[in-house]
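Appendix B. Chain record.
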Amino acid sequence: MSKPLRTAGVVVGMYALLVLGIRFAGGGVGWGPALLIALVLTPLALWLTWLRRRMRERAREWGQRRFRPWPEERHR
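Structure tokens predicted for this chain:
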């Protein structure tokens, strides 16, 4: 399966799960509002996932680049 097709599947699956979760969560939300709310929440969830992944990669890169000891440990 190609990457764009897999990404589209993830987005559609997340949207469907959000719609069902919002619709049947017990808040009395109808199908129309559930579809609209999920339309807003899906890109937000995808962006937060991307942001978390990027921050973890940056932290990992920073940790690998730092090979010198801290200044306090250097004087021992």
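Further analysis of this model is presented in Appendix C.
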